[in-house]
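Quick start: what a row looks like.
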Amino acid sequence: MAEEFGRSVQDGLKLSKRIYLGKDRAVTPPKPPSHMDKSPVAYLPTAPMVYAVISNPAIVDNPDIPSYQPHVHGRCDPPALIPLQMTRIELEADSYLDTAFVKISGSWRVHCVMGSESCDCRLAVPMGEQGSILGVEIEASRKLYYTELVAIEDRKDLEKEVRIENGGFLKPHTFTITIPKVDGGSTLSIKVRWMQKLLYHNGEFSLIVPFSFPEYVTPHVKKLPRKEKIQLNVTTGTGTEIVCKTSSHPLKGLRREVGKLGFSYESEVLTWTNIDFTFSYAVSFSHIFGGVLLQSPSLHDVDQRDMFCAYLFPGGHHSRKVFRKEIVFVVDISGSMEGAPLEGTKIALSAALTNLDSKDSFNIIAFNGETYLFSSSMELASEDTVERAVEWMSMNLIAGGDTNILVPLKQATEMLSKSGGSIPFIFLVTDGAVEDERHICDIMKSHITGGGSIHPRICTFGIGSYCNHHFLRMLAMISRGQYDAAYDIDSVESRMQKLLSRISSTIIANITIKAFDDLDEVEGDFRETSLTLL
């Protein structure tokens, strides 16, 4: 779907050459960069974008200056997507702990369709790390559109009305929605809200918001004023000093309080920004630090219950002792893992084995329809054993066959059943979907319930868009493990190494909150996340 979208944008840029720009020869449509000429994936949005959906190429023209070009016969199938020119853009980001709430406000003009015609327009919104869409408001052609959350029980009534082309996810973190029948020459005013995670590495928090606009969304009229704005608010919740590290744009400080910062950026530009908005900071504290944030509902909120968030920071002692680990790597080697997915997995696992402490122990189970063990028991991570394991992976991790996840999970659980004085982990890597996922979760839950407080944490890593990511999330959640995924094959190695790094530095486990015993009703997502030093 993503490649088809990219090809449609390519077709749209070619089609936009029909647009007459007047006698001013200095005003020419911007050309796409040369490196984008070949790969359709390179045309995917890197910031919020709006496209004219063109099935009938005859309607493509300048709505202000008709060119009276010869009629074009035929239709575009699939429809071409012409990127609309952007006339205004504003970014607001409110960062709390490890989560940022982002709002983008902008205006786009349908510059490529005759004034007497109309077309559908498609909004595409790429979001940052683990982005989740919150809402969209669109004003177009004297009509107002907005999104709303729909309860699960009401979905069946809407299924007949909902079509894939009306909206959905182009990629896992790229949301799209179609606006019907927008007049040529009119302007769309759009507000988009989403939430995303901050990255944490080496004591620094980093916010990265997709905000890189291609040159061809800059209006052709050079004298038209173009102003871009950014507003950032940071709340750490720690009550300690914040140390600013890096920023992609020249931010002006508005306020500075203990644990809180406010910044703004505003500039008139000739072309829109072509870099993502990034900001990083560090919080100064030398010990494990935690707290609780309370939030009361707004007056018009349907749910009038209070909310809270309990959090812990690992502190600055990077020499703090971590738990000894016992880890079983369970690796999918079915036929669909052939090529880059399996090669990236091998590289990431080899690096993880090298980073294990000599007192840690490990094993490897490869599986398809059958299972293949590196060793019949757990092995200490000595230099010689790690070398043998890397060699074993190169010889035995060969893609082929079906996918059977339950058997290797049972084997790994049995291997870790006698763990003592350590944190046992199962690290599952797969790109497939299974039919008995509910049964697998039930079986694993029963093992965990009867396994005491120090039971195996199942950390799951999904590869590709066809993997059952919901199943992997649930499997990690019920075992107090962690989940991550690489939807793009090129990111398998880097994202897997990040997850392995997180689970390799556990310093606190089995966190409980006793206050729940005194509450009549508690509802929420209470997941134990191992506190780590990255």
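That is the whole record. The chain is about 15% helix and 35% strand. The first strand starts at residue 49 and ends at 54.
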